[in-house]
Amino acid sequence: MGDVGRWLTSIAARARSVLRPGAAESRMDEEFRFHVEMETARRIREGLPGDAARRAALVAFGGVERHKEQMRDERGRRWADDLGLDVAFGLRQLRKNPGFTTVILVTLALGLGATVAIFSVTNGIVFAPLSFGDPAHLVHIESSDRDAKPNALSPLNYIDYRDQSYSFEAMAPVDDAHNASLTRPGLPALRVGIARVGAQFFSLLQVRPERGRFFVAGDDAQGAPLIAVLSDAAWRHDFGADPGIIGHAISLDGKPYTVVGVAAPALRYPVKTDVWTPMIWHPYEIEPGNRSYDFMHAVARLRPGVPVEQARRDLQAVAARLARQYPRTNSKVGALVQPLQDHLVGDVRPALLAMLGAVGFVLLIVCANVANLLLVRAAAREPEIAVRTALGAGRSRLVRQLTTEYLLLALGGTALGVVAAWWAVRAVVTFGPQTLPRLHDVSMDGRVLLFAAALALATGLVFGLVPALHAARPDVSRMLRQSTRGSSRGDHHTRDTLVVIEMSLAVVLLVGAGLLTRSFIRLMHVDPGFRSENLIAFDASLDPTKYRYDRDSRAFANSVIERLQHLPGTENVAVGATRPLDAASNFGLGTSFTVRGRPSVPEDQRPQTDVYPVSPDFFRTMGIRLIRGRTFTASEDRAEGPPVVVVNQALARHYFSNEDPIGKYIVLGITHTTGPSPGDTLHSQGEIVGIVANVKQNSLADTAVPATYVPYGTMPFDVSVVVRTTADRRMAESAIRAQLRQLDPDVPVFAMGTVASSLSASLAQPRFYMMLLGAFAVLALVLAAVGIYGVLSYAVSQRSREIGIRIALGASSRRVAREVLGHGLRMALLGVAIGLAGAVAFTRFIAGLLYGVRPLDALTLTVVTTALIAAAVAACYLPARRAANADPLEAMRAS
């Protein structure tokens, strides 16, 4: 038997050397080795030699592997069963405390719903890729002026950029600054937005038509047939989704175009485009020497492997060569290249990212508040945890079970939050500021739902892990000793820290909301330079084939004024090429000018001005204040009248700061080529006869720029009518439309409404940001105050025995109340101090949204600090009062 024993020991040693997977063996591996050793011994007893027995044991090893797999499957089933038990136990615990569960779910739904909603908006506008093929390789190209600011591109410069660069697969011109009259047999004329694009525009974007075809090579060649592609919205709204529209003719500004295709609904580029037509160059657009005629931009696709920065350097080198070759027109012209998505998103990216950061702060406050509630709940469950620990429950098992319970809360709050976010997103898309780019791309898509799921997991771990670790401490004796006296000192410190975090985040949000509110109030009190009350405005689109010459346009404008002046309640009527805050107008005319009698300067160094053709009554109708001199007379509002101009205060101060501009003669650097008809002469010069107040032309936040007003009769370019009336708005608008139909039913009238509504619409985006951040700040303030109240209330309830004994021994109620108030105020003041430091960083992100307010405005900081301290005092009052009114006998009996 001694030999057999040694033999078995040797075989077992060999089996261990073969089977050992590593230095650290699990209990399961030891069981497998035992089975192998027993198998080897059994075969030796059956008479097999030692080597044969060992080989047989190794063969049996395959069975052991199968057994291992079975054990792993069993372990997986056991884990799933444990998870099911944890979920069932967690649901029972939540059902047992419906009030506590409801408060947690509502709090989480507010925070998570707001976060998901803002992420949906930011995702749809900023993060979601454009609905084009490989959108990361699409770039937007335009020129820059001498101040490196974006400017339109001229056709001649575009052609050189296209032919002399090497970074692009394709490049297409885009001219989207046009409206046109769309006429259909038997139906009223419509105004549509036109985009002239190169033939390679659609193939460059890698998009497919919904119906028909897009442009192909040669469609933009001189003499090519006039064709058009309709947007999906125009096809449905203007043509009743007629499936037979392909091949039919439509009339745009009196010219026949054949419809060759209908775009897919997702194609909304350029913005506000109803019809795309090929970019067939007009002779004057590409006339040699006409490089300063800039009215378009371009879109291009990068070659594979070419980054945007390299393409930017490439075009800047081309622009530098053109500047040397054509110094008169290009000496100050540069090239700007940026990703197409960045161009479309524009200035809203920083604002939306700031809103996303703000709602993230709200979510952190929610998590801190929920964590505080769970800590209180965990303290109440300490006897239960102590008993379970004494009966053998491990720390990891307790943490897993409690974390599962808290994750259930997070999932429930997220589900409610997603429902709330869905309604919020719909409201933003429907009622939000329409000036937000890509607003119609905002939706609750798969990325948003994935974000919500990740948010549920993250928040569940954030607010649940600390309470779970605190509740699952293994020191049973201490837990049992504290079961009647409350939680440990460490728990109080944790809750206090969470409240300080809430207060500091609330400070950041309140400072941001306060700054945006002050900025919005400043904007509301900005003088727009005109009076908006009782003012109705509209635009009209004239068919250039019918109103071919200036005299025709002047006649139409004069007829409109004459007809509308006789309407009941009308006080004044005027016409201009555009009007202030006219979002529907594409008119823009800027030029250089010279002052007669001054030394000649190079063209690129001449002063600049915007030019606005207006009728004589325009200033009185709009309520624009006359500073000095006079405005136009009726005799000057015609081509053969004496050349005169009116300038604004900005031009007078900037270019005539040391002299009186009245009587000076300026020559504008523009030409007029409407047609060879008598009377089509342009006074591109004139004597300054008056100075008027600055007008906010595009937005209330605009800085006043030099502007020159010329008589409308000398430049009847577009038609924008303003009517000051005391009649009811609806009746007045109906009467105006009736008069226009009688005058010419083929002239579409659009953008009719009050100037006051245009003024309000210009504030829509600032109002949107202010309301969002304001709502977040109020929610943060309420949650922070509730957090202080909850911590102090719990502290008072846990110290009731101590407070009762102190009062019984002679401590004054006032002193006890001061201690409770002092505890709360210390947390509040510490949170305010930390929050003010954080506000310094946060205000940098919203600095671009402010108007007339510094990022660190002293008044805002003072008001926010006072409001938070007042809220903290109010939150501390009830716990302090309860502590001061404690009954010593009741407290000692309760202990």
What is the total tally of β strands? 22
Radius of gyration: 38 Å
Would you tell me the structural class of the helices and strands? alpha+beta
C-alpha end-to-end distance: 72 Å
Number of H- or I-type helical stretches: 26
Keywords:
895 residues; alpha+beta; six-stranded mixed beta barrel; six-stranded mixed β-barrel; 26 helices; 53% helix
Descriptive overview:
By secondary structure, this protein is of the alpha+beta class. Helices cover 53% and strands 16% of the residues. The protein has 26 helices and 22 strands. The strands form three sheets. A six-stranded mixed beta barrel has the order 3-4-9-6-8-7. Strand 3 and strand 4 (187-197) form a beta hairpin. It is globular.
At a glance:
The chain is 53% helix and 16% strand. By secondary structure, it is of the alpha+beta class.
Explain the layout of strands and helices:
Blueprint: H1 2-19, H2 27-45, H3 50-96, H4 98-127, E1 138-144, E2 150-151, H5 155-164, E3 168-184, E4 187-197, H6 201-205, E5 209-212, E6 227-230, H7 232-239, E7 249-252, E8 255-263, E9 275-278, E10 297-302, H8 308-325, H9 327-330, E11 334-339, H10 340-345, H11 348-380, H12 382-390, H13 395-431, H14 446-471, H15 476-481, H16 489-524, E12 535-540, H17 550-565, E13 570-576, E14 590-595, E15 608-614, H18 618-622, E16 626-629, E17 644-648, H19 649-655, E18 665-668, E19 685-692, E20 707-711, E21 719-725, H20 729-743, E22 749-754, H21 755-761, H22 764-798, H23 800-808, H24 813-845, H25 858-884, H26 888-894
Parallel strand pairs: 4-9, 6-8, 15-20, 17-19
Antiparallel strand pairs: 1-2, 1-10, 1-11, 3-4, 3-7, 3-10, 5-8, 6-9, 7-8, 12-21, 12-22, 13-21, 14-15, 14-18, 16-19, 17-20, 18-19
